[in-house]
Amino acid sequence: MNNDADSTPLTLARQPIFDRSQRLWGYELIPVIGGAELNGDASDRASVAADLAASTYIGLQEVLDRGKKVVVRFSEKSILEDLPYALPQGRAVLRMFGASVLDPGFKETLERLKKDGYLLVVEVGDKAVDDTLLAMADYLRVSIGDLNRDALAARLKELEAYGCGVLAARVNDQQMLGICRGVGFELFQGAFFKQPEILRVKKISSSEGARLQILRMIEQEDPDFEALAQVIGSDVSIGFRLFSFINSAAFGFRQKINSIREAITMLGWQKIKHWLRIVVLTDVAQNKNASELVQLSAQRGKFLEQVAMDHDFWGFNPESLLLLGMFSLLDALLNQSMAEIMTYLPLDEKLKSTLCREPGSEYLSFLTLAERFEEGDWEGANAMVQQLGLDGQKVRAGFEQAVGWANGMAALT
């Protein structure tokens, strides 16, 4: 790896991993190296582990404070150089591809790391993997692809002999999640959590409707501040959180605030809109993974807004793309169809058609771009960047900014 690559700032995609009860178990942090093309294969870069440990924008400390695991891919070279020690013992999980033959020196290094509290996830696929390495693994990682129930059950049975847990990767929908849970996988990673758990044929409840009424008010072209202040003032929970938000160190206001209307004025319209969107999304959520979905929604929105701002030749409105990302997971949050939810929001028809995933929708490519970044699909991300005629470095920087912004907003709601 050349010196220019080593000096490139680090950006990360954060992918949640869930247990059998769909509780958050940890995150895989996937480095993205910017350049002419995005590149996720950063495991040989000498400073990756140190960058991960030192970074604040990725919210690593917040993940650790919540008691969650952090999975990071390491190459054999970086493990031999003891780079995993830059990450905290007891929380860090080393992910590596299985080697067909395990070098004795490498085996000793892995044994020492495991003795010091590091867990090991080994990728198993079509290639042969050294039995000694498999026996050392705490988890084996299997990309399930298009395997059916019988094939998955047979694969799992083959791996039971090693006495460790098995992580199912690329679980991309709720149906496949059910199959993987049914045959006995322990951990799950993929896009399944972004989909509704159950699509209920029912109307939105009165409490959900009341919250969506706030979204309807703030998305109007000419919002009524007095009416909005009254709605917030009539909701004890939101009113209290608004004043807590204003009193946070992020603003440092010195003067006393005497009313909701004054609070809205002091914050400014853009800040109050961003904050209220996240609060409402949190409050209406009916999904057990709501905190992940809300943070991801905020991240998507900010990312797409920044892409539009950095590439104004497209002529897209940054605010529209922010809304696209922010509301793109409402169906998963509410466990209802997007078409039903759209009847409650005064959005542009182009936004509605994209949110409903209608083929040919004008903004659909941007939503796909955000998804490629989240999932660490760098080949797909590069293809979308080129298709849209975007600057890869600006897009990567926008993603980095969005991750930090979403982490900060989550802490203030």
Structural commentary:
- By secondary structure, the chain is α/β, with parallel strands linked by helices.
- It folds into two domains: 3-194, TIM Barrel, CATH 3.20.20; 206-411, Hypothetical protein af1432 (Orthogonal Bundle), CATH 1.10.3210.
- 50% of the residues lie in helices and 12% in strands.
- Strands 1-2-3-4-5-6-7-8 form an eight-stranded mixed β-barrel.
- Helix 9 (206-218) packs antiparallel against helix 13 and helix 14 (290-310) runs antiparallel to helix 15 (318-327).
- The radius of gyration is 23 Å and the shape is elongated.
- The protein starts with a helix and ends with a helix.
What layout of secondary structure does this protein have?
Blueprint: H1 3-6, E1 10-18, E2 24-33, H2 48-54, H3 60-65, E3 69-73, H4 76-80, E4 92-97, H5 104-115, E5 119-123, H6 131-136, E6 139-143, H7 149-159, E7 165-169, H8 174-183, E8 187-189, H9 206-218, H10 225-233, H11 236-246, H12 260-267, H13 269-284, H14 290-310, H15 318-327, H16 330-334, H17 338-342, H18 349-355, H19 364-374, H20 378-388, H21 392-411
Parallel strand pairs: 2-3, 3-4, 4-5, 5-6, 6-7, 7-8
Antiparallel strand pairs: 1-2, 1-8
Helix pairs in contact: 9-13, 14-15, 14-21, 19-20
Biggest sheet descriptor? 8 strands, mixed, barrel
* Fourth CATH level, the homologous superfamily of the largest domain: Hypothetical protein af1432
Q: What structural class is derived from the secondary structure elements?
A: alpha/beta
Mean pLDDT: 81
Q: Unreliable runs, pLDDT <50, ≥5 residues?
A: 1-7
What is the helix fraction of residues, given as a range? 40-55%
End-to-end Cα distance? 41 Å
* Order of the strands making up the biggest sheet: 1-2-3-4-5-6-7-8
As for the number of domains, it is 2
Query: Helix count?
Result: 21
What's the CATH topology label of the largest domain?
A: Hypothetical protein af1432
Radius of gyration computed on alpha carbons: 23 Å
**What is the 3D form?**
elongated
Percentage of residues in DSSP E strands: 5-15%
